[in-house]
Design goal:
With 365 residues, this protein is α/β, with parallel strands linked by helices. The protein has 13 helices and 10 strands. Strands 1, 2, 3, 4, 5, 6, 7, 8, 9 and 10 form a 10-stranded mixed sheet that branches.
């Protein structure tokens, strides 16, 4: 998807050069047997490219369980999921991370997961436990897909930035927005679903006709949209991007602050909080996993407070555990989204392919 999953908000970190997780020591031994006489064991996490975690947190998992984590990154979330569907029953790893609520039904319908109720799940709100009765997947994080804006552009022109879907089709915002292809990108699909939630089955296509008439630009993925075409990002500035509006994440502004040298006192980008769609990411124990015991231990750890509090400044997503604390930089510069335009998972499952097909026919031609 963030890509799919943009890839997820975590792709933001990758785009800005954040180091992502590598194998945390030890010899490969997915079966969970002692490796190389060292007594080390490993568990393999298959993920989209945006997965990241601090070395200290992964070392703590090893200290607790005796397992080291090996990460197999497989492109965006859609591509990674497709690989697991193709290898169903003989998976490439033990746990899959990164399927979100827009593609969850595809994963569940293909039966790639073994049910497991992770320890600590009681601390995760029921609202994000979309497979609560069967526990085939465990919710790990949430992120809000929203339009971001270049503060400097709007300040220099004394023009208020847009705040809603309706604003984006107004004449004053003509030729300002770049978004991702809903057929190939997670934020692009999320933005489409958000518009469908806002305008309904009968109105979303008319909305996109107006958006197209108002000069929306569509590119393949988040990387191009945010780091090349968007004038407000560090990457976009270097690439001389000319679009001051982009579909990204509510957590994008903290990234612009964290990796700037020197760090600014105010984020250079803002969020149109009336345009947001909430994305929830899940992990699951892969059916046929060689190290099922290690996989279960890893799922427990992914919803532990230690890992949950490590995520915001590594993958730029929100923890799902109720008592997890957010870092000050994340809360200070990230947008607080109180209301999102969401679509029920069963409705996404029923309509996703047709919506994307209709959107492609309408917008890309």
């Amino acid at each position: 998807m963030r890509s799919t999953k943009m890839l997820a908000a975590g792709a933001l970190a990758a785009a800005l050069g954040v180091s992502t997780l590598a194998a945390c020591g030890g010899k490969d031994d997915s079966a969970g047997k002692s490796g190389g006489g060292t007594g080390s064991k490993s568990v393999t996490l298959v993920s989209h490219d945006s997965f990241a975690a601090s070395d200290a947190v992964l070392k703590e998992f090893t200290a607790q369980t005796g397992y080291t984590v090996k990460v197999l990154k497989s492109g965006d979330a859609g591509a990674a999921l497709n690989q697991e569907i193709l290898t169903k029953g003989s998976p490439r790893g033990d746990v899959f991370f990164g399927v979100d609520n827009t593609l969850l039904s595809r994963a569940l319908d293909n039966g790639i997961f073994t049910p497991y109720e992770a320890k600590g799940l009681a601390a995760v709100p029921a609202a994000v436990q979309l497979d609560k009765g069967e526990h085939r997947v465990t919710p790990i994080d949430t992120g809000d897909i929203c339009v971001n804006y270049d503060k400097k552009y709007f300040a220099e022109r004394k023009l208020s930035p847009p705040g809603s879907f309706a604003d984006l089709i107004k004449p004053e915002y003509k030729n300002l927005l770049v978004t991702e292809n809903a057929a190939t990108s997670s934020p692009g699909l999320g933005f489409l679903l958000g518009s469908a939630a806002q305008y309904g089955d009968e109105g979303w296509q008319d909305y996109w006709k107006k958006l197209k008439d108002n000069g929306v630009k569509v590119v393949d993925g988040w990387e191009q949209a945010y780091n090349q075409d968007f004038s407000g990002s560090a990457g976009g500035k270097k690439a001389k991007g000319d679009r001051p509006l982009v579909v990204s994440y509510a957590s994008s502004p903290p990234v612009e602050v964290l990796y700037a040298k020197p760090q600014p006192t105010e984020a250079p980008t803002g969020v149109a909080t009336g345009t947001c769609f909430r994305q929830t990411e899940f992990a699951g124990l892969l059916k046929g996993a060689k190290n099922e015991t290690g996989g279960k231990a890893l799922l427990d750890f992914l919803i532990s407070r230690k890992f949950q509090e490590d995520m915001p400044l590594n993958m730029f997503v929100n923890p799902v555990v109720k008592d997890a604390k957010l870092p000050e930089l994340f809360t200070r510069f990230g947008a607080t989204v109180t209301e999102t335009h969401d679509v029920a998972p069963e409705k996404i499952s029923k309509n996703r392919e047709q919506w994307v097909k209709s959107w492609s026919s309408l917008v890309l031609k």
